[in-house]
Write a structure and sequence with these properties.
The protein is an alpha+beta fold and 430 residues long. It has helices spanning 10-21, 61-70, 74-77, 106-114, 120-135, 146-152, 157-172, 181-190, 196-199, 208-211, 213-222, 256-263, 270-277, 319-323, 344-359, 412-429, and strands at 2-6, 25-29, 41-44, 47-50, 56-57, 78-81, 84-87, 95-98, 201-204, 226-228, 241-242, 245-246, 249-252, 281-290, 301-303, 315-318, 328-334, 368-379, 397-399. The chain has 3 domains: 2-47 and 56-74 and 205-279 and 383-429, FAD/NAD(P)-binding domain (3-Layer(bba) Sandwich), CATH 3.50.50; 83-199, no CATH class; 281-379, Alpha-Beta Complex (Polyamine Oxidase, Chain A, domain 2), CATH 3.90.660.10. Helices cover 37% and strands 20% of the residues. The strands form 6 sheets. Strands 10-2-1-13-19 form a 5-stranded parallel beta sheet, covered by helices on one side. The model has no long low-confidence stretch (mean pLDDT 95). Bound molecules: flavin-adenine dinucleotide (FAD).
Length: 430
Amino acid sequence: MRVAVIGGGWAGLSAAVELAKAGTRVTLFEAARQLGGRARSVEIQGQRLDNGQHILIGAYSETLRLMQEVGADPDRHLRRLPLQLSFPASRPHPFRLRLPRLPAPWHLATGLLMAQGASLAEKISAARFMRFLQGTGYCLAADCTVASLLDRHGQQGSLRRHLWEPLCLAALNTAPQEASARIFVNTLRDSLGGGRAATDLLLPAADLDRLFPAAAADFIAARGGEVRLSTRVHSIDASFTVAGEPFDRIILAVGPQHAATLLAQQQETTAVARLLADYRFEPIGTVYCGYPPHLRLPFPMLGLSAHGSGQIGQWVFDRGALCGTPGVMAFVLSGHGAWEAFDDRSLLTALDDELAAALNTRLPAMLWHRVIRERRATFSCRPNLLRPSARTARAGLWLAGDYVCADYPATLEAAVRSGLTAAREILLRG
Ligand SMILES: Cc1cc2nc3c(=O)[nH]c(=O)nc-3n(C[C@H](O)[C@H](O)[C@H](O)COP(=O)(O)OP(=O)(O)OC[C@H]3O[C@@H](n4cnc5c(N)ncnc54)[C@H](O)[C@@H]3O)c2cc1C
C-alpha cells in the first residue's frame, strides 16, 4: 500500500512516522522549503530561532512519546520546570503561583494556598471550582464562553486575571470572552487535574526543528519513506494521483483554510470544505529582542500583564537561559488584541517598557529585533465549533491537523494526535 501525506507540519510528520514505522510506503509532500509548518525554525541574526515561541506542558504525552521514538530526546531538548506563573509588575500586588514538587493533588492545593497576590477567599473559590470540575468528570453539560463559566463559578479578582485567563489564552489562543469553556475544561482536566508531572512546563531548549521535524524526517527516510519539500499539491483527483504518482490512500494534513480549498474540488467532500471555510482564526505575535548578553530573567518565562490590563505583552521568555543565546528575549502576544494595531516600532517601545517595569530596572539598549506576526496562527476556539473527524466521505482520504482533534485546541499535541489517528485508521482498515 502506498500512502501520500500532504503537509509536513507536526500532524503530517506524525502520520508519516507512524506509517513508516509499520513498514508502509509513505511519501510526504510539503509546499514549503522546510518542514514544521506553524512550528518551524527561522534564521534571524545568524541564530536559529522559531516562527513563534512555543510552550509544551507535561500533559503532551503523545508528543513526548513520539519525540522519543524518532530519537529527539525530550529530556535534552526540553527544559522541564514546575509550573510557575509570575507577574511581578501586576498592580496593586505582584502575583506569583508556583506548584511545588508534591504528588497530586497536593501540588495544586499547596500551590494555590501559597500563591502571592491573591486573597484567601479567591484561593478557596478556585479550589472549589476545580473540585466542581472534577466532580463532573470535566464534562460540561453545555458549552459556553470561558468568561461565562468563570462568572458562574465566582472566579473573579487576581486568580481570574493571573491564572484562569492566562491559561485560557495560552492554551486556546482565544480571549476568554470568546473561547470555548468545554475545550478549556478539557485542557484543565489534562493539566491541573492530571498528575503533578502533567502540569510541568516544558520549554524548548533548542529550535523547533530539532525538537521533532528534523528527527522525524530522518526516521521516515531510514524506513524507506520519502519527504518532498517545495512540492505544493494543487488537487486531489479521483485516482489519488499526487504530483504525477498514484497512491492508495491520502492523508490531508494541511491547515483548515488550505484543506477547505482542496476538499471543495470534489462532490463528496464539499460539506466538510464548507465547514472549514467558515473557520475564523487568531493571530500570534512573537517579538525577538536582542539585548546585551548579561540581561537575564529571574525565571525563563515571566508574565508581563494580566488579561485586560491595557498592557501589550503577555509573556516574555529568556532564550538565553533556555537555548544558550544570551540576551535574546522572546515576547509573546496571543490572540486578537490592541497589539495588532501597533506598528513594529511602537510595539518594541511598549514591550521594552513593560519588561523594564517587570524587572524594576532600566534596561540596556536593544541591539536588534524582529517582529513575526502569524495572522492565522490557530483557529479561533469558540463554543460549539464543529470539528470534522479524520475520516472523510471519500473512501481512502483522511484528514489530520490540529483542527481535527476535537478534544483539544490548536496545539502541537492536537496536531500529533490527529496524525497518529489518521495513520492508525489506515493501518487498521488497510
Ligand atoms: C506563533 C505560534 C505560536 C504557537 N504556540 C504554541 C504553543 O506554545 N504550544 C502549542 O502546543 N502550540 C502552539 N502553536 C500551535 C501549533 O504550532 C499548531 O497547532 C501546530 O503546529 C499545527 O500543526 P499542523 O500540522 O496541524 O498544521 P501546520 O503546521 O499548518 O502544517 C500544515 C503544513 O501543510 C503545508 N501545506 C499547506 N498546503 C499545502 C499543499 N497544498 N501542499 C503541500 N503542503 C501544504 C504547510 O506548508 C504546512 O507546513 C503556535 C502556533 C503559532 C503559529
